[in-house]
Amino acid sequence: xxxxxxxxxxxxxVAKRASISxxxxxxxxxxxxxxxxxxxxxxxxxLTGENPIKVYETMFEGAxxxxxxxWNLLQSLAMLLCVxxxxxxxxxxxxxxxxxxxxxxxxxxxxxxxxxxxxxKIPNALLIIIMIIASVLAGAVWALIPAVFKxxxxxxxxxxxLMMNYVGIQLVSYFCMYWExxxxxxxxxxxxxTTHDGWLPTIGDYxxxxxxxxxxxxxxxxxxxxxxxxxxxxxxxxxxxxxxxRYIGINVKKVILRTMFLSGAVCGIAGLLLVGGTxxxxxxxxxxxxxxxxxxxxxxxxxxxxxxILTAFLLVFLDAGAGQISMVFGLNESFSxxxxxxxxxxxxxxxxxxxxxxKFRHSKKEVK
Length: 368
Fold this sequence. Notes:
Largest sheet: 2 strands, antiparallel
Mean pLDDT: 89
Strand order of the largest sheet: 1-2
Number of strands: 2
Strand content: under 5%
Structural class: mainly alpha
């Protein structure tokens, strides 16, 4: 007697891609965004009854509707990109620096201290030089603390850097009360409002242009540093395998300390630009969550500083557009957050199809 046997295989299985071209990977991301927009249109009609085309036009208006909105968008882009550049070397080394929020605040606090304590007492050019040095060192030292414990005692850097954020927030809160102006307000207020001592210079009539130029220079410098320098090579090797790095003679502890010093220093620059160049004051919300948003920017760009310009722009655009939706259509911010969340979900989900592929079962003849 003959017996029929059928091979039992799943309809499809997931396999990791060996490689994928850059063009194809970006095509997948673009398709994901288009699908997300269609999905958001359906959600908009179901929940609000509004015309989704009008909603998207409003989002665009919120980001590019006037010259002021464009400059605000570019300023927000520059600040988010600056913090993203700061965390990227650490992430590429697989050191999960979740403390950028606190490092930015500490850099801004050092800037504030210089403006309050030295403003009007020394020439403004010298004051700005001292502010730059103080903010860079403050951010770098704040980042070195968890780096030392990681290098010496192998502590969990994720929890350590996260907890450092709360310490930084409380320090800023204390000094906001200490330097409050006027007394009893609990706020520092605009520092050196009349003299502008310590205010970073403006270029022409554009208040934010200096910040944008500084961050653009940092972006190019970070790209060159990570891709072409010896230090960048060591960061990549340590990120791939610490054991391999030690085997080929790389001092892993030294790389950890050096990289976190750099990460904190760039966060300090972000604090300097926010306090000295944008807000001219400080509060516990000066960093505005950028330290956490920067994680997504860096990860989506695969730790490539040039690509991070695009990912940072996308997040800033969605944030500006979402605010405009809430204002124009009278919807609460929860709806705009839903739209933003859906789009980000599809973008992040597209990474799965970039790294993996679905292989379907081939038809097989029955075996007798």
